[in-house]
Write a structure and sequence with these properties.
The protein is of the alpha+beta class. The protein contains one helix and eight strands.
């Protein structure tokens, strides 16, 4: 055995060690990628494997009386004046939904403030509604004229107040009806 043999052997062992380390690092990276794919798979399947349009089912947004505004523009839900949730309607039935809200902000509202449809079944045919003059600390009844959809089933719509600067504020107001022929 020559003097170069032990050096060759150590060099070969070092090369094998480096190869093993590289393989282990690659496997760790592969395992990480597989984990990321497994975590993302439910989202990807919903995105790519959808066979029909999703049904819009809004999730609850805080409590009904929660306020979502600033010190100037803010409102809380006080009560449903008409059409309580789950009211049964006939197809294409017209109705007026009225909510009572309280201006809990420091600014008065005027005709530049409105109630705006923000989501749900737009087939409820909602239009923006001017609020009128409401002093800070006062309550007001706000109504929208709607038409029940022709399709049977549960239908929902959600509205929010919009200030004179175009900003949304206050509690989210909703209507939930059941259409039965």
């Amino acid at each position: 055995m020559s003097d170069h043999e032990p050096h060759k052997e150590k060099s070969e062992q070092s090369r094998i060690k480096k190869t093993h380390v590289a393989i282990i690092i690659a496997l760790i990276g592969l395992v990480g990628t597989i984990c990321a794919v497994l975590i993302a798979l439910p989202m990807l399947s919903n995105l790519f494997l959808r066979t029909s349009e999703p049904t819009l089912t809004p999730t609850p947004v805080l409590a009904a009386t929660a306020s979502l505004g600033d010190s100037c523009n803010n409102a809380i839900f006080v009560s449903d004046v008409t059409i309580p949730d789950e009211t049964v309607m006939t197809p294409n039935q017209t109705f007026i939904k009225t909510w009572r809200v309280k201006n809990v902000g420091s600014c008065a509202w005027d005709n530049a403030y409105s109630l705006v449809f923000i989501g749900g079944n737009n087939i409820l045919n909602s239009q923006d509604v001017s609020i009128g003059n409401v002093a800070s600390g006062s309550e007001v009844d706000i109504s929208v004229e709607l038409i029940a959809p022709s399709a049977a089933g549960r239908h929902e719509g959600y509205w929010r107040l919009r200030g004179n600067q175009g900003n949304f504020f206050g509690a989210i107001l909703g209507v939930i009806i059941e259409v039965k022929p």
